[in-house]
Amino acid sequence: MKKYLAEMIGTFVFVLMGCGSAIFAGIGLGTTGYGVSTLGVAFAFGLSVVAMAYTIGNISGCHINPAITLGVWASGRMKGTEAAGYMTFQIIGGLIASAVLYFLVHTGNQAGIEAVFNNTTTTGANSYMIGNVIPAFTAELVFTFIFVLVALGATDSKKGAGQFAGLAIGLALVLVHIACIPITGTSVNPARSIGPAVFAAIEGNLIPISQIWLFIVAPLLGALLSAAVWRCISGREARIAE
């Protein structure tokens, strides 16, 4: 249970900081000069991973992402029941963070609320332009593959980066966001997408929830591909933990 709670807290911080930076980017709730750029949003997500890696890494491994958990399971490093518990609590953490962000947006001053609605996302939800489903699916699959491959390699018990694993994984996520934000807003993490999509639907915006399947299926497929490739290039046996 400690591992599950650690994953919930880690995902909570990740979604709160990352999606929060996306929500308030460029507008600062009615103020000027306090917003961040696309690069700032990318670093917010990446640095959140770095911070949590060195906070809960020794407790749960700091997956804070169902795609990474699936990749770890497919690599034979954890049991299926444990992986299911990780994923469940990651999604819960993302939902709690999204609830906090929803509260912050809807209880701010009116000028700030209007700025959020007029200039950027109100929940941090991922979406893609109608007709761009193939590029969006491809981007999420490929970039998740890269991200999870870095995570598997950096945390490998024999070939990994040791104490520098968290830094490597966090910086990889920054790179992924820089490249993918213009396409889908960047998910590569179902737990990061589900909560914001739910609260976007509560606001009446049904586009993110109608597209949520892509931000679940593509990252999970990318994770499975990463596990297969890592086993191949690392020489690990193709063994799945029960």
Describe the model.
There is one protein chain. The protein is mainly α and about 240 residues long. Helix content is about 70%, strand content about 0%. It contains 10 helices and no strands. The chain has helices spanning about 1-25, 40-60, 65-75, 80-105, 110-120, 135-155, 165-185, 190-205, 205-210, 210-235. Helix 3 (about 65-75) packs antiparallel against helix 4 (about 80-105), helix 6 (about 135-155) packs antiparallel against helix 7 and helix 8 packs antiparallel against helix 10. The longest helix has 27 residues, at about 80-105. The chain is globular and about 50 Å long. The two termini are about 20 Å apart. Mean pLDDT is about 90; it is low at about 30-35.
What is the compact description of this entry?
This protein is an all-alpha fold and 242 residues long.
